[in-house]
Predict the structure.
Amino acid sequence: MHAGENVTTPTCIIIPLNPSFIPADSGINNGTSNVMINCKCFNIDYQQITWYSPGQRKVPFKYTETEDIPYVINGTLIIPIFNDSYQGTYYCGVGNYSVFGANISLTLWTGNNYYIGFFQNYNGGSISLYLTNTGSLDLSYTIEAPGVGYYTSGNISGTSSKVVKLSSSLITNSYNDQNKGIHLETNSTNVTVIGQNDVSESSDTFLALPTVKVCCTHCIYYGISVSSGVSQYDNVILIVGTEDNTMMNLTVTQSVNVSINDTISSLTRGSQYSFIVNRLQTVYIGSSSDLTGTRIITDKPVSVFSGHECGNVPSLSYRYCDHLVEQIPPTTYWGKTYYIASLQGRSAYTIRVLAAYNSTEVFMDCNNVKNSYTINAGNCFTVTHQYYCAIRSNKEILVAQYSPGYDYDRRTGDPMMMLVPATVRYSNEINLSTISSYYYSDYINIIVLKEYYQPSMMYWITGGVKRSLQSQSWNTITFNQVTEAYYTQLSVSNGPVTIIHTTANALMSAVVYGFASREAYGHPGGFSVQKTIQG
């Protein structure tokens, strides 16, 4: 906080409040996490106080229900915590912008603690963590799993990466495994963490998310997977506790058994159950039927991994099955606008769209083919397309993109699953990592919003070599025949890659994926996790 800076008469002070929970319009425990900041000016009524945003525009006093924008109530600035485009310095006071009395900066915040879990592949699995040091200074790390007596540590030099092979004893194979949580801690937040679960002809990766205080009164997560898979392989949701005495409420979409604190419980589809989960405790939920929409509500953050031991895409009619997994963020970090590019080398891809709240209206424009859907909290729909897609909704949704099985088009590749970044997750610098394997063909899809489409100011860095994106072939993404974004596809070698836009406030996203003979992997290039108030 910079109270007292830019002070004139009257004197103003800024008082950051704890993040609060603002009830929204519908759905179970529906709401939005917000940053709330008070501004008080000496001998001045709150109605005379004005807030200015980083763009030096007045923040409106009236909250528009259909928009997630900063607004002011009784002198208090309220900013949606999930929208990274609202970072910057805010000013409050009386009079014109130039004579405001106090300011405060909101900046993105990342973490250096990761709570990770792996569930089994179709035939066991070999698990690894890909650690990329995105800073210039050396990075140290420790990895522990006390439940199985595992510990390792190491160092990574600046702007380089390391593959840490983990013991297979850390894989959670069934609901009987209850203490296989993994804790990774680094001495810096300049790190990207990718998890891989691999066996011959079945592999996938996930972007690990740092554990931060992303929720207010509670966190809400939903499982997402596929609806098809051979019956002997499970749809899986794996939950890893990050703090002791975490209250967890489960509502499952299939009847399953779970084991928590050495007690086996039979959960009935659609019913709610409450449990206490402790740090590094694992909760395995597995079913041969689709677990998409299973809801997890906790009073403290947990890590949720969702997918399939070996799922078929888009249906059982197409071989082969493959491991599918992503780490799922809480609903406060979902979004309303998504852009999706096709997958290099494949003839089509599948999208699954999952709703956080009731009465969610979703509008899709895929290469000028338009469709709309209305779904409730925990419900989803699945579509298959060949070209780009633009997706908009009136409430938060989660979008996953899948590669089809080899038999779908008889081209190199197999199923994989990756979360699509919402536009509120976009940034001007993205750090990615491909998989260190000679037999994969690796690709990166880059999407940039129309207003920041400046290829001459965009670069990609790999192996210490900086290359311009100006010579890349770019394609448009339109919604209702209006261009909203551009995308390109890079063919890259294995190892870390950085995508940079030299315009500081530019917004772009990236996903990385790779194909081999009857094998594939994919994960998002990263998105910011939380805002904090610096003062």
Notes: Helices lie at 406-409. Residues 113-534 form one domain. The mean pLDDT is 85.
